[in-house]
Design brief:
Blueprint lengths: L4 E12 L2 E12 L3 E5 L6 H8 L7 E6 L6 H4 L2 E4 L11 H12 L6 H7 L15 H13 L5 E5 L7 H16 L3 E6 L2 H7 L2 E6 L2 E7 H6 L1 E8 L2 H8 L5 E7 L2 E6 L5 H10 L4 E8 L2 H11 L2
Parallel strand pairs: 3-7, 3-8, 5-6, 6-7
Antiparallel strand pairs: 1-2, 1-4, 8-9, 10-12, 10-13, 11-12
Helix pairs in contact: 4-5, 5-6
């Protein structure tokens, strides 16, 4: 079944003086996806999100929301956290959210719901200045959820948080996504994107290096380990396998690399036909970090 396209970006570009922050960026986000924009600091993530929210104009290129050019109506369907909102420190969470709702021209009906969703309901009458940094981030997400937006845009939502705070924000994002909200998330944290996102775009200096399904990246085996009673015979046999690149014997285990995705059942069948029974067979999955670092290494 084809997924409805929520956001279509076509050759988007932005310069700041001599610096090309975003260069010919194109991608699509489907309804219900958790889409990550991954890249080191200075890669153009925040600039991209700012253009998509009409906070800054692009120099070139176009984008559309919900199949239509960007408009005031489309922005009403989007919640965002680009920078931490300026909540009033002497007011409680409920009052701060009422002010945000007034600015957004949204009703107060779902204030209790977003506070419960963000885990702040028990502290709803506490003044903002008493909140920890992690609680402030969760209140920012709660404010973005007012009005039940169809899309959430989040820029580095776990930046500056301790491990517990990161886990809380990650769980909150996953919960929001499970309710059908499309999420566009920018981060320089590989682990965050790997655990939350279903699709990813990798940026470096405003240029897209990779776009695709995170699951497909993680499904690729970096190498396959194997062993048998006769290691020299095994090494000679596996060298005939289609896509074989190289093998290395380490502590009685043969580590084999291929130039294409390979599954262990292929290996097992191939060697069994040759009369080789394996005593050990396992695959080492490449991480998103390995793929990311390979992309950066290959780019001048």
């Amino acid at each position: 079944m084809q997924v409805e396209t929520i956001l279509h970006v076509e050759k988007l570009s932005k310069r700041f003086g001599k610096i090309r922050a975003v260069n010919q960026l194109s991608f699509e986000v489907g309804r219900g996806q958790v889409f990550g924009i991954l890249g080191p600091n200075g890669s153009g993530k925040t600039t991209t999100l700012s253009m998509l929210l009409d906070l800054i104009p692009p120099d070139d290129g176009t984008f559309s929301w919900f199949g239509q050019p960007p408009s005031k109506d489309s922005r009403k369907r989007i919640g965002s956290v680009i920078e931490s909102p300026n909540f009033f420190p002497y007011l409680d969470a409920v009052t701060n959210l009422k002010i945000v709702a007034d600015i957004k021209d949204k009703p107060y009906d779902d204030i209790d719901e977003v506070l419960q969703l963000s885990g702040l309901y028990e502290r709803r009458f506490s003044k903002f200045r008493t909140f920890s940094f992690g609680m402030r981030q969760r209140l920012a997400l709660a404010s973005a959820l007012l009005g039940k937006p169809e899309v959430m845009i989040l820029d580095e939502p776990t930046n500056g948080l301790d491990p517990q705070g990161i886990a809380q924000i990650r769980d909150l994002i996953s919960l929001v996504a499970s309710r059908g909200t499309t999420i566009l998330l920018a981060s320089h944290l590989l682990d965050e994107v790997q655990k939350i996102c279903s699709y990813v775009v990798v940026l470096r200096k405003g240029v897209m290096l990779f776009s695709g399904n995170v699951r497909e990246v993680l499904a690729v085996s970096d190498s396959i380990e194997m062993a048998s009673s006769d290691m020299p015979v095994l090494a000679a046999a596996i060298a005939e396998f289609p896509g074989f690149l190289a093998s290395t014997a380490i502590n009685g285990i043969l580590q084999v690399h291929f130039d294409r995705p390979v599954v262990t059942s292929e290996i097992n069948t191939f060697l069994y036909i040759k009369g080789i029974v394996l005593s050990h067979l396992s695959e080492k999955k490449r991480s998103l970090e390995q793929h990311f670092l390979e992309l950066l290494q290959d780019t001048p």
